[in-house]
C-alpha cells in the first residue's frame, strides 16, 4: 500500500555509499539479521527445561524459524520494493513522510497497536533475568507469591525497569545500530560459534573426521565474523552520534 501511495517519495533502488561504507554496511546487516533470527534461541533454551528435550527443541525451532522467515523476509522484500534505498531502520518510520501518513490512519493505528503488543511480549521474555534479580531483592520469600507484600514491589520494580529501558531507548535512538551491536557481540557467537565448540568438547568427535573440522571451521569463521561485525557496529554508532541528539525524533 505504501508503494502505491501517491504520497510516497520517489523510489530509488540503487546502492548508495562508497566501497568502504558498503562493506561496513554489509557486516552491520549480517549482525542485524543474526539478532532477528537469534530469537530462535528462546524456544531452544525453554526446551531444555523438561524432557524430552530433542523432540521439543526441534519442533520449537522449526516453528520459530518458519514464522521468522515468512514474516521478516516478506517485510524486507516488500519494504524495499515500496520505499527503495530510503527505507528507515524502523518499520513505522517508512509510513510517515514529512510528518504525514502515506497509508490510511486506521491501518497505521493497528500497526502501532500490534507493535506495542509485540514489544510487550518481547519485554516479558528478555526482562525475566532482571525481574528475578529485583524480586530477590525486594520480595519476601516467606510470604505467598500473590501476597500484597510481594505484588506491590514486583509491580513497582518491573514498571521502573521498563520505564528506565524506555527512557534510555528514547535518549539514544540508534535502533538499527544497537541491533547490530547486540547481534555482533551476542547472537553471532551464541548461535553459531559456541554450539560448535560445545559439541566438540562434549561429544569429542574424532579429529580425523569431518564433523570435528566442520564444527571448528564454523566456530572460527563466525568468531571472526563477530569481531568484524562488532567493529562495524561501533563504527556506525560513532558516525550516527555525530548527527543525533538526545531524545531526537528520528
Automatic annotation (TrEMBL):
GO BP term (any one): amino acid transport
GO cellular component: membrane
Matching InterPro entries: AA_transpt_TM
Occurrences of domain Amino acid transporter transmembrane (ranges): 20-234
A Pfam short name: Aa_trans
Cellular location(s): Membrane
Protein's UniProt keywords contain Transmembrane: yes
Primary residence: membrane
Protein name stated in the entry: GABA transporter 1
Amino acid at each position: 500500500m505504501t508503494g502505491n501511495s501517491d504520497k510516497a517519495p520517489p523510489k530509488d533502488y540503487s546502492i548508495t555509499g562508497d566501497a568502504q561504507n558498503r562493506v561496513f554496511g554489509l557486516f552491520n546487516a549480517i549482525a542485524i539479521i543474526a539478532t532477528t533470527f537469534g530469537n530462535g534461541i528462546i524456544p531452544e533454551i525453554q526446551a531444555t527445561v523438561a524432557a524430552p528435550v530433542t523432540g521439543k527443541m526441534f519442533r520449537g525451532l522449526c516453528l520459530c524459524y518458519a514464522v521468522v522467515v515468512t514474516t521478516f523476509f516478506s517485510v524486507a522484500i516488500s519494504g524495499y520494493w515500496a520505499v527503495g534505498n530510503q527505507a528507515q531502520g524502523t518499520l513505522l518510520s517508512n509510513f510517515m513522510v514529512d510528518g504525514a501518513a502515506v497509508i490510511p490512519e486506521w491501518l497505521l493505528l493497528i500497526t502501532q497497536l500490534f507493535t506495542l503488543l509485540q514489544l510487550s511480549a518481547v519485554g516479558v521474555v528478555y526482562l525475566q533475568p532482571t525481574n528475578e534479580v529485583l524480586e530477590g531483592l525486594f520480595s519476601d520469600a516467606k510470604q505467598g507469591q500473590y501476597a500484597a507484600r510481594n505484588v506491590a514491589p514486583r509491580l513497582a520494580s518491573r514498571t521502573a525497569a521498563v520505564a528506565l529501558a524506555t527512557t534510555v531507548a528514547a535518549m539514544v535512538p540508534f535502533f538499527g545500530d544497537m541491533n547490530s551491536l547486540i547481534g555482533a557481540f551476542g547472537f553471532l557467537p551464541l548461535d553459531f560459534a559456541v554450539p560448535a565448540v560445545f559439541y566438540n568438547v562434549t561429544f569429542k568427535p574424532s579429529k580425523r573426521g569431518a564433523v570435528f573440522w566442520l564444527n571448528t571451521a564454523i566456530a572460527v569463521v563466525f568468531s571472526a565474523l563477530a569481531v568484524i561485525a562488532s567493529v562495524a557496529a561501533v563504527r556506525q554508532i560513532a558516525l550516527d552520534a555525530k548527527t543525533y541528539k538526545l531524545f531526537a525524533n528520528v
